[in-house]
Amino acid sequence: TYPKWGVTIYCSGAAITPATLSAATDECRELIRRSVRDVHAVTEQAYENPDARVYGVLFRIEGDSPAPIRFMLTDSAAH
Question: The organism sits in which domain of life (predicted)?
Answer without folding.
Answer: Bacteria
